[in-house]
Amino acid sequence: MTYGGVDAPEFGEPLTNLTVPIGRDATFQCTVVNLGNYRVGWVKADTKAIQAIHELVITHNHRVSVSHSDHFTWYLHIKNVQEEDRGQYMCQINTDPMKSQMGFLEVVIPPDFIPEETSGDTMVPEGGTARVSCKARGIPPPRVMWKREDGQEIVVRDQNGSKTKVLSYQGEVLKLTKISRSEMGTYLCIASNGVPPTVSKRIHISVHFHPVIQVPNQLVGAPLGTDVTLECYVESSPKSINYWVKDPGELIIPSEHHEMTVRQKSMFEAEMTMTIKNIRREDLGSYICVAKNSLGDVESKIRLYEIPGNDRHIYQYLDEKTTSDDEYGTEMYDDDDISNNDDNEKSNRVPDRANKWYSNDGKIVVMSVNHAPNVLTATLTITAILLLPTLI
């Protein structure tokens, strides 16, 4: 078509639709052939608001600008696109009749959670129902998916009570009925709509229940002088206060003799141990492990008894036992008392007829009966030396 013998202007190619995330820049490109003395204008079609005519910006929107390349390619620039910029944009040529073409600007918005419609951490009694929800907004509308943070399966029960285990669950509301302690943990609510970034929210579900104690060995035997460890396994939520008691009710305080540990195995499982070092006879008896939380308390008993052991340290002296003042005492005796009164020999010494005793270090010392004269001789010699100053 010609106007006054001059080729009429035409659009070189269609106006392309744009999809731009909010906050980014958008640029429409309008290609015109044989523009001549005609002008190119830009209009937002849905509001009929003129954006620009040729090189002059009309709109008061400071984010809008125009440019061109050799009167052939004309551009409409929109910086920092906002949601209100969405709509149809028209590129016009002021011929008679007017020529125009349109392109659509879609402004997409990444997902975001609506705080007032999204659950926080929640607590539910064991056997009850936990209901958590995540409501997300965005353009296009986001899809919501649930996963467990620890990678375990989600247990979903239908109205008939039959359960299904899934790695992920689709939907804004997650409902866990007849919940058990193994379902306690952190759940991830993930919202996505194809516009980065994908967002997620951590929601912790606590399942509360009365403490439970399991004891692997209720009877524990060990030789005196050895170390022994007592064990109790506790399950509780909220976490329990754990301690040990010596029957009938003596609270045991951690010490070098009683070493105690509590090792947390999971959110609701703990292993409590007590090691009794160098068992003495007074350590024998019943011990009670106790667990208490806000829902109640529980205890379990372990009995510690002696095993006659062959692994004690036994020292044998074939010839003579050398004694110290601590074993025999430091009291001095007269010769007449020693020779005439056999009762004095029982002062701090072990009678010669004995074949064993416990020394101060707790070890068993064994002596043969036929060595008694040697010991007695040594004792008399020591006594004579002590009396020497008196005789002089």
From TrEMBL:
Q: Where in the cell is it found?
A: Cell membrane
Show the Pfam families listed in the entry. Answer: I-set, Ig_3
Query: InterPro entries, alphabetically?
Result: Ig-like_dom, Ig-like_dom_sf, Ig-like_fold, Ig_I-set, Ig_sub, Ig_sub2, Ig_V-set, Neural/epithelial_adhesion
Point to the regions of Acidic residues compositional bias. Answer: 325-342
Q: Which PROSITE patterns match?
A: IG_LIKE (PS50835)
Using the record's annotation, list all stretches that form the Ig-like domain.
Answer: 9-94, 111-200, 211-305
Cellular component (GO) terms are: neuron projection; plasma membrane
Reply yes or no: does the keyword GTP-binding apply: no
Where is the segment annotated Disordered? 325-353
State what protein this is by name.
Answer: Ig-like domain-containing protein
Has UniProt tagged this entry with the keyword Disulfide bond? yes
Keyword annotations from UniProtKB, A to Z: Cell membrane, Disulfide bond, Glycoprotein, Immunoglobulin domain, Membrane, Repeat, Signal
Q: Where does the record place Basic and acidic residues bias?
A: 343-353
Give the classification, highest ranks: Eukaryota, Metazoa, Ecdysozoa, Arthropoda, Hexapoda
Organism of origin = Parnassius mnemosyne
Specify the domain of life of the species encoding this protein.
Eukaryota
